[in-house]
Write a structure and sequence with these properties.
The protein has helices at 14-23, 28-35, 39-47, 54-67; strands at 8-9, 74-75. The protein is mainly α.
Amino acid sequence: MAKRRVEYVVNWDPERIKALREHLRMTQRQLADELGVRQQTISEWEIGMYVPRRSTMKYLTLIAERVGFEYKADKK
């Protein structure tokens, strides 16, 4: 019987995005430049107006893991 692969996803909510940015000691502009988005986009994520696209969420997760940012992933 094959093992079922359990994926963990990070819900990049406004608080978690801001906490990651602050952990990185970056401004919204700096994080935007790193992700290839507008500063306004980071602001909109942080106030909950919009959420990052799935591909950007994966990139945020990779960044978080590389810099040792602790977060709790949700089981999918």
